[in-house]
Structure formats: C-alpha cells, structure tokens
Amino acid sequence: MADSFDLTVIGSGPGGYVAAIRAAQLGMKVAVVEKWPTFGGTCLNIGCIPSKALLHASEMFDEAGHQFKQLGIEVSPVLNLRQMLAHKDSVVNSNVTGIEFLFKKNKITAFRGTGSIPAAGRVLVTPESGHGQTIESRNIIVATGSVPTSLPSIAVDEVNVVSSTGALAFKEVPKRLLVIGGGIIGLELGSVWSRLGAKVTVVEFLDRILPGLDSEAGRQMQRTLQKQGIEFRLSSKVTGVEQRPDGTLTARVEPAQGGEALLIDADKVLVAVGRKPFTEGLGLEIAGVALDERGRIRIDHEFKTNVPGIFAIGDVVAGPMLAHKAMDEGHAVAEIIAGQKPHVNYALVPSVMYTSPEVAWIGKSEDELKAEGKEYKVGKFPFTANGRAKAMLATAGYVKILADVTTDRVLGAQIIAKNAGELLHEIAVLMEFSGAAEDLGRTMHAHPTMSEAIKEAALMAGDGAIHI
Ligand code: FAD
Ligand code: NAD
User: Fold this and answer.
1) Ligand 1, atom 3: nearest CA belongs to which residue?
2) Which CATH superfamily is domain 3-147+276-346 in?
3) What is the pLDDT of residues 255-289, one digit of tens each?
4) Rounded CA separation 429/440 (Å)
5) FRET label pair with 275: which of 184, 223, 269, 386, CA 20 to 30 Å apart?
6) Are 142 and 312 contacting, i.e. CB atoms less than 8 angstroms apart?
7) Does 2 score more than 80 pLDDT?
8) What is the DSSP letter of 385?
9) What is the pLDDT of residue 247?
C-alpha cells in the first residue's frame, strides 16, 4: 500500500523546507520530495549562501589590501582561491545538513527523486535510477523554485559562459569578466571577482542598474562600483558570444535599440538576466494546474491553485524571487492548511544587495511615490556624520526615510551602508506597526552605532537632526 501523508511538499528550498517544518510543528504527517542530492534548494546550494560566503571573503581580502594600512595594520594579502572556495563549500555543507537535521527532528519523511502530480492527492517520486513510488497525500505544496533565464543566442556551458552557478566556482580569477545584466546577481558576483582582481564589465539593457531600486540609490551605487573598478555599459545588449581557438571569448555588444556593434573580449561571461519559474517534469498539465502568462503557477491569496488540495509558493509563483518571501509563504501556507488565518504583507518585503557598501530597501521608493502623486517628505542622513562609521572607515552611504507629509507615517526607506541589511529591520518593524518617522526619531538609540543614522534621518524628516 502507498505511504500516506497529510502534506507532501515538492522542493526543499526556503519555501518548501519552511512549509514542511511548520506543518510538522502543527501536527501534520509530512513528506518532502527533493530531486537534488542535498536539501535547501537554490538558496542554500547555489544562491544566497555560497554567494554571501564569497562576498564576505572577497570583501575581507579587499579590506586587508586597501583599508588595513589606514588602521595601522601592515599586511600584503595573498589570495588562496582554493581555500576561499573550500570555505564557501563548507558553509553550504553546514547549512544543507542543517536542513536534514531539522527534517529528522520534525519527523518529516524525505523522498529523493523528481516529484510529479498524476492527480490531486497523489505524488509520484521518480529517483534518478530505480523504480518510481507513489505517495498519497491529502495536500500537496509545489515549491519547485526557479532557474536562470537564458538568452537565445548565447549558450551557457557553466565553464566559460556561465550562469550564477558557474560564477560561484571559477577555478581561477578570470582576467576579464563580462557580466550580462546589471541586476543583483550581476553586481554581487561582479563585485566578488572584481575584488579578487578581475576587470569586470557589466552590460545592462536599461539606462540604469538595479531596476526596482530607488533611482537615487541606483545612481549612487553605480558611481561607487565604478570607483571600485567595475565598468558599466548601459542601454546595451549582448547579441552573441564567440569563442576563439585560444579560448578567448568575444562578445558583440550593441545599443539596446540596435545600431553599430562593439566587440569586447573576455575570459569568462556571466549571464545574469533574471530567473524564470521552474515547473518542468511536474506534470501540471496532467493534474490540470493553471499557469499564468509568464509560466508561474497561478494561485489565490491562500496559495491555492485552481486544483483543490494543490498549493504553490516561492519563486514558482508571482512576486519577488527572494528567499525570505518564499519562507514567509511557506510558513503561511502550512498554517492555512492547518485551518489558521496567517497573512503575508507583500507591501513590506525587504531587499538587500550584499555589495560593499550594502544596499537595503523596503516599502516605496521616491520614484514610486512621485508616480503615485503622493505628498511625501524626505529625511536623509549621510554616514560621513556618524561617529561609529568614521571609526570603522565605513562612511560611504546614507539612510533615506520617506514619510507621509500629513500623517508622518513611514512609507519607505533605503539604506546604503556597511551592514545595511542588518540596519534595515528596525524600520521594517516600525512600518509593520504603521509607525511614524517621529516614533523612530524619539526612540533612544545606543551610541555610537550605525543605527543612529536611522534616528537622525527620521529626525530630518521632522524638524531637524542634531549631528548635521
Ligand atoms: P528553490 O530554492 O529554487 O528550491 C526549489 C527546489 O525544488 C530545488 O531544490 C529543486 O531541486 C527542487 N525541485 C524542483 N523541481 C522538483 C521536482 N519536480 N521534484 C523534486 N524536487 C524538485 N534570495 C535572497 O532572498 N537573498 C539572497 O541573498 C539571494 N541570493 C541569491 C544568489 C544567487 C546566486 C541566486 C541564484 C539566488 C539568490 N536568491 C537570494 C534567490 C533565492 O535563492 C530564491 O528566491 C529562493 O531560493 C527561492 O526559494 P524556493 O523555495 O521558491 O525555490
Ligand atoms: P534581476 O532581474 O535582478 O536583474 C537582471 C538584469 O538584467 C536587469 O537589470 C535587466 O534589465 C537586465 N537584462 C535583462 N535582459 C538583458 C539583456 N538581454 N542584456 C542586458 N541586460 C539584460 O535578475 P538577476 O540579477 O539575474 O537575479 C535573479 C533573481 O535572484 C532576482 O529576482 C533576485 O531578486 C534574486 N537574487 C537576490 C539576491 C539578493 O536578495 N541579495 C541576490 C541574488 C539574486
């Protein structure tokens, strides 16, 4: 007789593993189906975690070479790339085995293989070798994530022309790295290899980097990254990449609207033009699960697909492709299946780009407020006026708080700073409680901290900060 579960989750990324654990905590008998050898999905295996390990290590290398001297530390750092990659691999290993531990702890049954849905209530697990097995399940959550988008004329081989996966594992530092796409992956991984010595050129289709980020912050980050040695070719597209017999790659770069092409030589090319939902092999057409026009699984506000008993979350559904968005959806969908009434606040999804300095943002950008015709006020405080930042040689960046002109309610914020991703969350909490800029400005902040810049920016949205 087939194994029978209350819930089967297909995919063990941040969406799937959180849903499975929360459902088990709520008393359900839970199975997870994962086709990769390790749990944790894109984020833990080939995404957030390995990229942050390399970003941290390469930032330390860069600081040792360029900032330590000013602090009175004389060193000449020597790169040991093998060890840096080994550090990254060990961080990944520790995280993915952590998920395995959590599954055991919560008595979740793991099945290895590709999951497909022959009908509501049933999941077929097909391992790489051997026979398939059918599981019966009252509920099914599809959390199969996303894969990189490819460009029609450019073949990715993951050695010379790579996606983010290949760019996390170059065996040597490329002399010249051409990055196609000035989004988060292009700028994070471009930063890693630039710090380690590569000449990085970013080709971006639009006339700005990081679409979606407040345009003032985008311009400032472009200037900062240029100072760090990264070259940008905006309003441009790569229409082909050819490999010469000596292995050198030549990219054809054209103006976005067409026109004369420029040839750029490179040792490696990173294609980072976005990601697309992954539903291959699930047999959704057989189960009758509907997709939207962009290939994402269509869901309602309770993560229900059009087929009763089948839910979907994370990168495979609409919304920002972020691990924490997938996790919160996983948490919520498990509670909904258990009969609870949770809520995910899509107006407050924080975003962080882990470059140096980091950029963190939440809520509305100034561009969005202008487009909406909203009357808003701005409080902007630079880290050059923050004592702790000076002590740490971390004066690059600012805190910008946008608040409603009449009610003072905080509508959005952008922070460019060392550890901006950590600083952002006091604003996130305030915004969850519909707080005002004055609430932030009157909250006592420890001195000396980088967080004081948030208090000061909030005071500036009122009638003035103290330290500027
Ligand atoms: P995924 O993590 O993609 O997991 C899907 C899982 O489903 C995979 O394990 C896959 O093997 C499995 N699967 C697919 N189909 C089947 C099937 N039929 N049967 C069984 N298993 C299946 N986000 C952030 O928030 N912060 C970051 O710093 C960040 N950095 C990133 C860096 C990089 C280089 C990349 C590529 C992404 C990054 N992201 C980051 C995005 C983040 O990784 C994704 O948003 C997140 O992983 C989505 O989670 P998910 O659970 O929806 O899917
Ligand atoms: P992205 O959508 O962030 O950026 C892609 C960029 O490529 C855009 O600026 C786009 O205009 C440009 N582009 C598209 N087609 C192009 C073309 N033909 N030529 C030149 N430029 C082109 O996508 P990404 O950087 O690939 O990241 C994918 C996803 O992964 C994103 O949703 C992101 O949220 C997530 N991610 C998040 C983090 C983080 O949170 N720190 C880190 C990495 C990835």
Assistant:
1) 145
2) FAD/NAD(P)-binding domain (3.50.50.60)
3) 999 999 999 999 999 999 999 999 999 999 999 99
4) 11
5) 223
6) yes
7) no
8) G
9) 85
